[in-house]
Amino acid sequence: NNQNENGSIDESQSRSLVFALVSFGFVYSCRAFVTICFVAAQRRHLMVWAIFAPKFVFDGLHMIAIDVFVLSVSILFSHSRQKLEEDKSH
Predict the structure, then answer these.
(1) Which pLDDT score is estimated for 86?
(2) Cross-strand bridge partners of residue 3
């Protein structure tokens, strides 16, 4: 068990969480980038508005939602770790 006496996680779990969040965000950013490349390559094709534009919009919204989630979890986690470290010092 990697939890200490007050239920907080240790440094290795902290690094694993950060790596998982960054990897998660990176995968969705890559998907959005590939969609952008396809839209740019097919910008003059008539079907770009029927096929690629909705995917582009949904990938963009999905990426924004994922980024907000990753940022929120990171801020909450950072805040809780700082508070824990302050409590240890007092």
Answers:
(1) 75
(2) 9
At how many degrees (to 10) do helices 52-89 and 11-41 cross?
Answer: 160
User: What separation, in Å, do the N-terminal and C-terminal C-alpha atoms of the chain show?
Assistant: 26
**Contact of 10 with 3, CB cutoff 8 Å:** yes
Residue for token pair 């949904």: 58
- DSSP bridge pairs for 9: 3
Task: Please give the model's pTM, rounded to 2 decimal places.
Answer: 0.64
CA gap 90, 71 in Å, rounded: 29
CA gap 73, 41 in Å, rounded: 35
**CA geometry: angle at 33 spanning 32 and 38, to 5°?**
95
